[in-house]
From TrEMBL:
It is found in: Cell membrane. It comes from Salinisphaera aquimarina. It is a multi-pass membrane protein. Residues 27-160, 175-308 form the EamA domain. Its main location: membrane. It comes from the Bacteria. It holds the Pfam family EamA. This is DMT family transporter. The chain crosses the membrane at residues 27-48, 60-77, 89-110, 116-137, 146-166, 178-196, 203-223, 235-256, 268-287, 293-309. Keywords: Cell membrane, Membrane, Transmembrane, Transmembrane helix. InterPro entries: Diverse_Substrate_Transporter, EamA_dom, EmrE-like.
Length: 317
């Protein structure tokens, strides 16, 4: 099965080992749609505040996503079962850290900070991806990618500090911003680890990690309810759960996994920086949040980082 996957990957490359243009363009389209969904996810999470508690939202989201995917994935799950059994701990880590951990932190952060801060802070994910790929997987990180990452870090720092260097130097973060830093560590680690995912069909993979995320978030939701901080969803809460489960959850995650297969986690990871662009647009239009000058500067750094990393990479190939 692994050899078959390698042959398919080779077929998408030209004689010099570079990805053919159709495969790259397909990956770019998938990543743009993915980041649109994820930008909307942060806005949906803000709409959920007071209508469903964050940990219960995380649990219900992945439970529904897994149930919706199950009928479509069933034939592939039966075929891939021997491989899935061998990698059960890895699959549990994907779901528990990348899906449940990230969303629990993100939805909780939205109770303490603005949607604009949350979506722009997600631009720090590529830094985690680059660092883990280099330190753990010994992947080569190009100078242009590193420079693009540094530009996005500057944008994140500007956002976290609300444009105040004094606040940044004093490490004066509110609880929401601190939770978002935890969130990007979770999802950055998940994205970097996609390079070693089991050689199974993408539907098998997504369904398994949705199930793992649901199981791993059960204790969190239980603790939330037991501590009397849980909020049973009303109509708006239910609508947010369904939206988050289907679009940012099942559909966007599937597109992101496929894009990673086409162009690799380093290149796919830099597109996460488009989440702030869409998220900022949605938060201003739908929620009415104020877009400050430092937000605009941070978004400019994000866009420049993406353009630099991808332009230099394309020339090298």
């Amino acid at each position: 099965m692994q050899q078959s996957s390698e042959r398919k990957t080779a077929a998408r490359r030209d004689g010099r080992g570079a990805l053919t243009a159709p495969s790259a363009y397909r990956a770019y389209a998938l990543l743009v749609l993915t980041t649109m969904c994820w930008g909307a996810n942060a806005v949906a999470g803000k709409f959920a505040v007071g209508h469903i508690s964050p940990l219960l939202l995380t649990n219900l989201r992945w439970g529904i996503a897994g149930l919706v995917a199950l009928p479509f994935a069933w034939p592939y799950l039966k075929r891939d079962l021997p491989v899935l059994r061998k990698h059960v701990l890895l699959l549990a880590a994907y779901g528990g850290i990348g899906f449940a951990g990230f969303n629990a932190a993100l939805y909780s952060a939205l109770n303490y900070t603005s949607t604009l801060n949350v979506v722009i802070e997600q631009a720090g994910m590529p830094g985690v991806i680059f660092a883990l790929n280099f330190l753990v997987l010994r992947s080569r990180v190009r100078a242009a990618q590193l420079l693009g990452f540094l530009m996005t870090v500057a944008g994140v720092a500007l956002t976290v500090s609300n444009g105040s260097l004094t606040r940044l130097l004093a490490l004066d973060l509110n609880r929401g911003d601190a939770l978002m830093l935890l969130a990007i560590l979770c999802y950055g680690g998940y994205t970097a680890a996609l390079r070693i995912k089991p050689p199974v069909h993408w539907l098998s993979f997504v369904t398994c990690i949705c199930g793992a995320a649901w199981l791993c978030s059960l204790p969190l939701a239980g603790w939330e309810i037991a501590s009397h901080s849980g909020i049973v969803p009303d109509i708006r809460g239910i609508a947010v759960v369904l939206f988050a489960a289907l679009l940012p959850g099942l559909i966007a995650q599937s597109m992101f996994i496929r894009a990673n297969e086409l162009i690799g986690s380093n290149r796919a990871g830099i597109f996460v920086n488009m989440v702030p662009i869409f998220g900022a647009l949605f938060s201003v239009v739908l929620i009415g949040e104020t877009l400050h000058l430092y937000h605009l500067v941070a978004l400019g750094l994000v866009l420049a980082g993406i353009a630099l990393a991808e332009q230099r990479r394309a020339k090298s190939e």
